[in-house]
Amino acid sequence: MNLYEQQPYWLMKNGIVSSYPSLQHDLQVDVAIMGAGISAALTAWHLRNSGLKVAVFDKRHAAMGSTAASTAFLQYEIDTPLSVLKNFVGEKDAVKSYELCRQAIYDIADLCKSLKPSFDFHLRPSLQHASFKTHTACLMEEFKLRKKHGFNVEWLESKDVKKIFGFEAPGGLFSADGGEVDAYMLTHALFRDFQNAGHKVYNNTPIHHIEHTKQRVLLLTSNNLTIKAKKLIIACGYESLQYIPKKIADINSTYAMVSEPIDDKFFWHKNSLIWETAVPYLYFRVVSENRILIGGRDDPFHHPHILPSVINRKTEMLKKAFLKKMSHIPLVPDFSWAGAFASTKDGLPYIGSIAERPNTFFALGFGGNGITFSVIAAQIIHDLILGKRNTNATIFRFNR
Ligand SMILES: Cc1cc2nc3c(=O)[nH]c(=O)nc-3n(C[C@H](O)[C@H](O)[C@H](O)COP(=O)(O)OP(=O)(O)OC[C@H]3O[C@@H](n4cnc5c(N)ncnc54)[C@H](O)[C@@H]3O)c2cc1C
Questions:
Q1: Which position among 85, 316, 373, 389 has the lowest Cβ density within 10 Å, counted as fewest Cβ atoms?
Q2: Which of 9, 66, 275 to mutate to test the pocket of ligand 1 (most atoms within 8 A of CB)?
Q3: Both 11 and 138 in a single domain?
Q4: What distance in angstroms lies between residue 37's CA and the mean position of ligand 1's atoms?
Q5: How far apart are CA 91 and CA 88, in angstroms?
Q6: Ligand 1 center to residue 150 CA distance, Å?
Q7: Has this prediction a pTM greater than 0.90?
Q8: pLDDT at position 303, please?
Q9: Domain housing 22
């Protein structure tokens, strides 16, 4: 699967950060992790001091899957509003999912602080504004429900949005808890810590065949090497779907662009993360080097190959939609890309095991909150592998 097309900004900005070798011999480990994106890095990092021998294998280069293309908004608000999610999973689990995502933002903040050297992380509030007047009632309902459950949110009338953010919108939900991070660099920083604890990451090592026995899992690489593992973690991002017999997600196409650097006098209230109620939504934030990132204009299907002309057209659409709100900003697109993007029916990730694959755990942070979901997946899988109970696991189970 082509996970993205053209130039994700972080890949261009950071280039090759760390190189890992390919596997050249048979191997026996306690835990094998397939995939070396942010989900694998977080899971590997959580397991680094567990006393288990862990190794990570990627068919490409580490962090060069969807992680490199991610726009890396860290929000606890998942793509399905709380007021809708409660109809899928009940109010208790819906609220718990939101709380876990909020906690995940602060867990990433702590984790970034604990890395040596500490890793750049910013807490940012977020504004979700109503795209149309007809959306205000639902957004207000969402505000009330979140308020009821103790989330730090404020309701903004149309005039408040105009006064604080400078653009027209019928109303908005301002949320205190959010963040942003460079997911590509964070993945490498986590792997550095993981390797320093004595474990290994392998690039260019496609796993072609998986065999499950009662006691262990046998992996066969494309050059016929064997990896024997007591446990397997599948963290292959959207390509994990081929290992699951039932359909759990739809793959769409999404688009993003990053502008040339802009004078920061043009930036808005607390550099908030901004998104809207329309589906698919337009979203934007400030990124490093005083650039503005804009994303959205999704297509409800996955193109195997997206033509440059399509990306150029989507970039124009993103720019136009942004300038409709922020017409005073001299925005010049600099980098543009398209990416595959998976969403589940209820907006929640799938974390845990399926009967067909014994001794195997999936870390599938699908949806707009992929990265906060990956934190939750890493915590749950860490506990399950060590035989500890994790009461949150049932919320994200496959047979929900
Ligand atoms: C344009 C875009 C914007 C996004 N914006 C956000 C956002 O704002 N906030 C957010 O939280 N999330 C966002 N996401 C989602 C987020 O980026 C993903 O959820 C996250 O990067 C997934 O990480 P991963 O490690 O699970 O997958 P990946 O990064 O794709 O890593 C999986 C790895 O598995 C490897 N692999 C696959 N098959 C095999 C195999 N057989 N053998 C060995 N290796 C294999 C791949 O090569 C790949 O490197 C966005 C995604 C895109 C594309």
A1: 389
A2: 66
A3: no
A4: 6
A5: 9
A6: 31
A7: yes
A8: 83
A9: 4-70+184-247+347-396
